[in-house]
Amino acid sequence: MRMVLLGPPGVGKGTQAVKLAGYYGVPHISSGDMFREALAKGTPLGLEAKKYMEAGTLVPDSVTIGLVKERLELPDASRGFVLDGFPRTLRQAEALDELLAQLKMPLDVVVSIEAGRDVVVERLVARRTCRQCGAVYHLKFNPPAISGVCDRCGGELYQRADDAEETVRRRLEVYSKETEPLIEYYRSRGLLISVNGEQDIEDVFEAIKARVAQV
Length: 215
Ligand code: ADP
Ligand code: ADP
Ligand code: ZN
Fold this sequence. Notes:
This protein is an alpha/beta fold. It has a single domain (2-178, 191-213), classed as Rossmann fold. Helix content is 49%, strand content 15%. The protein has helices at residues 13-24, 31-41, 44-55, 61-72, 90-102, 117-125, 165-179, 181-188, 201-213; strands at residues 2-6, 28-30, 81-84, 109-114, 127-130, 136-138, 157-158, 192-196. It has a 5-stranded parallel β-sheet, sandwiched between helices. A 3-stranded antiparallel β-sheet has the order 6-5-7. The longest helix is centred in the C-terminal third of the chain and has 15 residues, at 165-179. The chain binds adenosine-5'-diphosphate (ADP) (2 copies) and zinc ion. The site of one adenosine-5'-diphosphate has 18 residues, from helix 1, strand 6 and helix 9.
């Protein structure tokens, strides 16, 4: 299974990507997680990405494409993958097509997860993320068993700086301008399926599996 998840920030791409990667037995590849890990380690890549992430704008294509390319060339990605948060620009989508053509592993499906602006804002402003393993929670919709502590690894939960309301607004603008055109890009290539992201986490998961099984 080679799948891309598309959708606005906060729609639930990361949440579904973890479940889908487990279900299909393929790696979950998240460009946002890769940037946050690089930043936590203080690598040059992380320091370069930092200013864009904090501002809620996109890290330049030149940097992002190279990072994801290296990841997709690792042996485990030959089994398949769930890509989350990449591509986010037309240039990234074209670079991905080129790379996957070279590797002889074209995409099977692109899942567009859809939800209204109010829904994604409500999800983002109460998102909590594990500092240690990156697992994602929501104060109301998906709380951890013990407040402030990751169920999976015991790590500390924090609020991403870019989940502050002002930055969220900027990220949604960037999404409309840069990323939303990819829906048409993939639709015209016959790869797109759309799923209602305003349902409960489990219902979205079931809907994606059902739609993908028909492809
Ligand atoms: P994205 O990767 O698209 O930015 P996340 O998967 O991080 O989105 O989800 C954003 C927030 O919304 C998180 O706090 C997550 O727990 C919560 N969430 C995800 N999917 C749902 C859903 N279907 N219903 C309610 N809350 C959700
Ligand atoms: P979200 O959960 O809102 O979908 P991500 O965790 O995917 O956010 O991304 C966080 C930030 O990392 C983005 O706002 C951007 O600065 C950077 N980033 C992640 N993926 C990309 C990408 N494909 N291209 C450019 N920047 C990216
Ligand atoms: Zn954790």
